[in-house]
Design a protein that fits this description.
Elements lengths: L12 E5 L6 H12 L3 E3 H11 L2 H12 L5 H11 L10 E3 L5 H10 L2 E8 L2 H9 L1 E3 L6 E3 L21 H15 L1 H8 L3 E5 L4 H13 L2
Parallel strand pairs: 1-3, 1-4, 2-3, 4-7
Antiparallel strand pairs: 5-6
Helix pairs in contact: 1-9, 2-3, 4-5, 6-7
Bound molecules: BIS(adenosine)-5'-pentaphosphate.
BIS(adenosine)-5'-pentaphosphate binds next to helix 1, helix 2, helix 3, strand 6 and helix 9.
Protein name: Adenylate kinase
Catalytic activity: AMP + ATP = 2 ADP
InterPro entries: Adenyl_kin_sub (IPR006259), Adenylat/UMP-CMP_kin (IPR000850), Adenylat_kinase_CS (IPR033690), P-loop_NTPase (IPR027417)
């Protein structure tokens, strides 16, 4: 059966929110297919800048490798430019943005947010998810050595992100709890927060997201 979302879920932008490794990127694919909204991942944009060796990439490198947040003005500049593109005019799917109250305030000035999907996963599960994550550089598909093993035929080409190690993930979690998690209450007060249990199977997390978005 083809999945669909009601029209009111299609207005404005959707934010995928949660700690590092919660499954934002994993679930983004299904929501993009359903809504035709482009995925806007600040992490992916920064990694692309880093591999191109651009000024932005050089500026972001030390923060990313330390597991710290890149300064707000850099991120806000990046998003403002991205939202000027044609494909963003009916809203986008934000993945990993906003991550501070300052970013959320700036976003509110330039775009309408219709829902914030918070994928809830406790810290104990995060480290295992991050350390076991592998990416396919050809397709962008995200795998996990235990939870979503890649087909044997592509195992040799899989890569591991430089910041996917245990010590960096502890810093990323610290940054999340100190700077990002207060945003959940900020969005809850605006009636936009949808909480989803991120400790289910990948399929069931996706089903819960779709059903809660549909019920809005
Ligand atoms: P970013 O790339 O955004 O990383 P992140 O938020 O740390 O999130 P991840 O991409 O690590 O996790 P995810 O939630 O997408 O999980 P995934 O689906 O891959 O940011 C990187 C860095 O860039 C930041 O540290 C910061 O320096 C900078 N940055 C980016 N945006 C910024 C901003 N707005 N402001 C300032 N700085 C910014 O899943 C993880 C693994 O778990 C995978 O292996 C997957 O297969 C597995 N998995 C997923 N779901 C399940 C499930 N239900 N059960 C079991 N396993 C699962």
């Amino acid at each position: 059966m083809t999945e669909s979302l009601p029209r009111n879920s299609m207005n404005g932008s959707i934010v995928l929110f949660g700690p590092p490794g919660a499954g934002k990127g994993t679930q983004a694919t299904r929501i993009v297919d359903l809504t035709s909204k482009p995925q806007v991942s600040t992490g992916d944009m920064l990694r692309a800048a880093l591999s191109e060796g651009s000024k932005l990439g050089i500026e972001a490198k030390s923060f990313m490798e330390a597991g710290e947040l890149v300064p707000d003005d850099v991120i806000i500049g990046l998003i403002s430019e991205r939202l000027k593109m044609d494909d963003a005019k009916n809203g986008v799917l934000f993945d990993g943005f906003p991550r501070t109250i300052a970013q959320a305030r700036e976003l509110a000035k330039i775009a309408e947010v219709s829902a914030v999907v918070s994928i809830e996963v406790p810290d104990e599960s995060i480290v295992r998810r991050i350390v076991g994550r592998r990416m396919d550089p050809e397709t962008g598909e995200i795998y996990h050595i235990d939870f979503k093993p890649a087909p044997e035929s592509i195992i040799n080409r899989l890569i591991q992100r430089k910041d996917d190690n245990e010590s960096t993930v502890r810093n990323r979690l610290k940054a999340y709890h100190e700077q990002t998690s207060p945003l959940a209450i900020w969005y809850e007060n605006q009636g936009l927060l949808i909480k989803v249990d991120g400790e289910q199977t990948i399929k069931n997390v996706g089903d819960e997201i779709i059903s809660k978005l549909s019920a809005r």
